[in-house]
Amino acid sequence: MPDRTEHDSLGDLFVPADAYWGSQAERTRQLFQISGLTEHPKMIDAYVMLKKACAQANGELGLITKDQAQAIVQAADEILNGKMRDQFPVDVFHMGAGTSLNMNVNEVLANRAEEILGGAKGEYKKVNPNDHVNFGQSTNDTFPTAMRVMARMMLQPLMVETESLAAAFESKGREFDHVLKSGRTHLQDAVPIRLGQEFNAYGGAIRRAQKLLEFAANELEELGIGGSAAGTGLNTHPKYRFRVVELLGEYSGFSFRASQNMVEAMQSQFCMAALAAAVRASSLELTRIANDLRLLCSGPLTGFAEIVLPPVQPGSSIMPGKVNPSVAENMNLVLYQVLGQCHTIDLCVQAGQLELNVMMPGMAFSAQFMLQILANAMRVFRTRCVDGIAANEQNCRRYAEISPSLATALNVYLGYQKTAEVVKTALKENKRIPDVVRELGLLDEETLNKALDPSLLTEPGIPGK
After folding, report:
1. Cα–Cα distance, 115 to 122 (Å, whole number)
2. Into which CATH architecture does domain 150-220+269-393 fall?
3. What fold characterizes domain 403-456?
4. Three-state SS for 118?
5. Phi, psi of 248 (to 5 degrees)
6. Peptide bond into 434 cis (omega under 30)
7. What angle, rounded to 10 degrees, do the helices at 360-384 and 41-60 form?
8. Please, are residues 461 and 434 in contact by the beta-carbon 8 Å criterion?
């Protein structure tokens, strides 16, 4: 490919002639060939949106010319509308703090703005990546701001899916509310419960996780833009940061606000720790729930077989007719990846030193990856699994009736020790609890029926009293 020569503080460098990126992005492209992964489209959107807001604010404040501001804004809009999306070759694992990506964005916007104003790529006579696109900015305040904007945008679909999944479980809770079954503690038979109660509880747990996601969303909406290099605001107009935040809110539709302490906003990435904590808590609950569904559908003949999951794929390459809980398994696979990304964010957050955390590129990648795969997996889990779950009412009822823990309701009539003897006899002779009570003449039929009334066994109170 033909090249053009660009010059930076390290000297001359050949850059592909048709590239909108410049020397710094090119140095990174050649140096950090690490993962083969480039930045997520939402991170590009967030960074370009931020640069657009900065240019517009600086133009309004007279810090760059109106022509320069308008050209940068036009270039940004072109990218946001889908053009030049292949012009961001920086690997997600690049230099600390995110300088490579910041300069990649600066160079693409500068070169396109240069063309808009009649110049040529690489000249930087009319619009310079550092002097104009990056005016009043540093990687140190733009990268964390773009990261927060990206994370807030990508968190929104996850919050929607969380709400939808909670509602789906609650709907199943209503559908299954009449289905009596045996509860299980320690994976052993326990007192009766309704299948609907189990499913409604799943929905409640997910709703609790949603509250943590809402807290994280609020934390992400506080932006430290305007802090420049160390959070002091050097080389920025006093009104600049407030206008940038206002514009970001207009562009995105989210309620961003300027940080009250820009030094803290640069030193600390608490908002990313809050995001990881919320996603981790959600993932732990979802892992437990997905595992429960796999247990409840186990069988169909040698397991619990209390529910039936929708079949989506043949389950075996060798066993004909086998069907696996594939969507629930997929949910677990994704959740384990998500939990690993949460841990990575934790490690990156605590690695900040003095006025800057240079591990932000790691946080950004982990946030992008976990938010995308978790939202997608939850949608598949809901639409291809939860929505189609059916109850095996016959099995549920049979387990409830043969479970020795059914005898717990007799404690108030017979006492713990006598009831334990009933249970031992039932297990030894393979008989139902009511039959043993009748044979031993321990309760009259009316009292026995009241004590073991299924409708009274799964609500607060003393059955028959």
Report:
1. 10
2. Up-down Bundle (1.20)
3. Ribonucleotide Reductase Protein R1; domain 1 (1.10.40)
4. coil
5. -60, -35
6. no
7. 120
8. no
Beta bridge partner(s), residue 189: 184
Amino acid residing at 367: A
Q: Is the pTM of this model over 0.90?
A: yes
What are the beta bridge partners of residue 11? 8
CA distances 189 to 182, 352, 400, Å, are: 7, 50, 9
Show me where the domains of the chain are located.
3-135, 150-220+269-393, 403-456
12 SS3 class: strand
The DSSP secondary-structure symbol of 355 reads T
CATH of the domain spanning 3-135: 1.10.275.10
Say how many residues make up the chain. Answer: 465
d(CA 117, CA 112): 9
From residue 426, give the alpha-carbon distance in Å to each of 166, 407, 410, 416. Answer: 40, 10, 14, 15
**CB burial string 280-318: b at 16+ within 10 A, e below:** bbbbebbbebbbbbbbbbeeeeeebbbbbbbebeeeeee
The H or E element spanning position 390 is strand 390-391
Contact (CB, 8 A) for 385 and 328: yes
Ranges of H-type helices in 253-392: 262-267, 270-296, 326-350, 360-384
The token pair that represents 352 in the structure block? 């900040």
> Residue 121 in contact with residue 75, Cβ under 8 Å?
no
The catalytic residue among 138, 171, 298, 316 is: 316
* pLDDT tens, residue order, the chain (465 aa): 689 999 989 999 999 999 999 999 999 999 999 999 999 999 999 999 999 999 999 999 999 999 999 999 999 999 999 999 999 999 999 999 999 999 999 999 999 999 999 999 999 999 999 999 999 999 999 999 999 999 999 999 999 999 999 999 999 999 999 999 999 999 999 999 999 999 999 999 999 999 999 999 999 999 999 999 999 999 999 999 999 999 999 999 999 999 999 999 999 999 999 999 999 999 999 999 999 999 999 999 999 999 999 999 998 889 989 999 999 999 999 999 999 999 999 999 999 999 999 999 999 999 999 999 999 999 999 999 999 999 999 999 999 988 888 889 999 999 999 999 999 999 999 988 999 999 999 999 999 988 888 778 898 988 877
How far apart CA 266 and CA 281 sit, in angstroms, is: 26
Question: Catalytic annotation on 298?
Answer: no
Q: Mutual orientation of helices 66-80 and 99-116 as an angle, nearest 10°?
A: 110
Instruction: Tell me whether strands 180-185 and 390-391 are parallel, antiparallel or unpaired.
Output: unpaired
Q: How many other CB atoms are there within 10 angstroms of residue 204's CB atom?
A: 14
Asked if 259 and 271 count as a contact pair (C-beta separation under 8 A), the reply is no
